[in-house]
Amino acid sequence: MNTLTVIALLAASIHPFGKQPSEPLRADSISIYYSDETQPEKCDEGMTIEEFLSESTAPRFPDAYSQPYDSLVVALKERRARAAFDDFFDEFINIESVPCDDSRQLPDSVYEARLRMILSPIHMPYNEVVKRYIITYTTRKTLMENVLGRSQYYFPMIEEELDRAGLPIELRMLPVVESALSPTAISRAGATGLWQFMYTTGKVYGLEVNSFIDQRRDPVLSTKAACRYLKDLYGIYEDWTLALAAYNCGPGNVNKAIKRAGDQAEDFWDIYPYLPAETRGYVPSFIAATYAYTFSYQHDTAPAPTAMPLATDTVMISRPMHFDQITSTIDLPKEVLRSLNPQYKMDIIPAVGKSYSLTLPLGEVARFLENEESINAKDTVYMAQYLKPSRTDPSQKVFSLESFTYRVKSGDTLSSIAKRHNVSVAQLMKWNNLKNAHKLRIGQKLEIYR
């Protein structure tokens, strides 16, 4: 029996959720961040998560959902999601020139043998570039602990959509590289969601984006759109490494790199020197993430606890509804609703003229349906600012979520703008997240709902 065979046999148990080493709950875990109406008076950007939690006066939920997840999402704003993504990008993608920690690596033969065990139509070779990323993913464990935890919620859905589209199941690791499985991740360029769709690409693939909803953040719909996009890219290049590169930097940049590399270029590694720096790290990061997920047990990496309920179901909502209508009726923490429905940016389901889905913990679906009449009856309380006189019958009020953009002119005040458009100052401040009614600047854009 040769050395390679021994290594392969030792590495044979590769299922990531087999027997796992026990780990204490980590307070420094990467979390999914959601916007909230309130924010602590002081929120130091340089503060560690442990320091933030120890000083935060944000309310904690005393029920089964009370995890570090909740205490973070209550107070941290979406800007923290952007900062978290930047940290992730710098630590796990943009590491081409970062020195490799040779003291914490395994023999090359082990990495190479394990990668060969991953049978996939996506070519995943072992080389010095891939090695650097594998070491990063397997030694900086916080990321993979959280990915393993979140994957228990997201991967079954992602794998089902990939299978339905006839795509390689290994593409489930793409949103790990894109967003660390955070549906609210926002890149420096404005790409959003699990699959990091830019606004224009998202619209091309049918994702709705407006003031109330961003379906790039909808785990299911964005996954369906990503499957269509990946299938289109593979149809262009007929090579998965090139398709992945194009997913990151766009087909135009890949085509330029192919031209510079010459007629013999067939895959990512042939055009590697001619790609943008970020994309040069993209495919190696995908390979490394696949390796780290598959061999998580061998690297003593266990899933971090997650507050995401693994059993969920959806109900269709056909009228405008605020999350507070639900939480005040069936006593379900708003942060749970936000975590399961990150696409609703203002905690409002804008169901005017069409229906939208609402995801709930499976155990709460029956309670929601039993109390649906009471929940709907609260719309005039929680949605009052969107009630407008009917154009056909002014004595009747109807919900209106249509908006237009007003540009502030010289001499304008918030009060004069509100009076001119038959709305209140409080509504203008709410719609535009204004903190001070007296601070306007010429040219400032305001969203006004009809």
Features:
Membrane-bound Lytic Murein Transglycosylase D, Chain A; two-stranded antiparallel ribbon; globular; 22 helices; Lysozyme
Fold blueprint:
Elements: H1 3-10, H2 49-55, H3 68-75, H4 78-92, H5 108-117, H6 128-139, H7 141-165, H8 174-179, H9 199-204, H10 219-237, H11 240-249, H12 251-261, H13 268-271, H14 277-280, H15 282-294, E1 312-317, E2 321-322, H16 323-330, H17 334-340, E3 348-349, E4 356-361, H18 362-370, H19 372-377, H20 379-382, E5 387-389, E6 397-399, E7 403-407, H21 414-420, H22 425-431, E8 445-449
Antiparallel strand pairs: 1-4, 2-3, 5-6, 7-8
Termini, distance in Å? Answer: 77 Å
State mean pLDDT (0 to 100 scale): 79
Helices and strands, in order, run as HHHHHHHHHHHHHHHEEHHEEHHHEEEHHE
- Count of alpha/pi helices: 22
- CATH topology name of the largest domain, in short, is Lysozyme
**CATH top level label of the largest domain:** Mainly Alpha
Query: What CATH architecture of the largest domain would you give?
Result: Orthogonal Bundle
Strand order of the largest sheet: 1-4
Helicity level = 40-55%
Strand fraction: 5-15%
Sequence stretches where pLDDT stays below 50 over 5 or more residues: 1-79, 84-100
Q: C-alpha Rg, in Å?
A: 24 Å
Structural class: mainly alpha
Provide the number of structural domains: 3
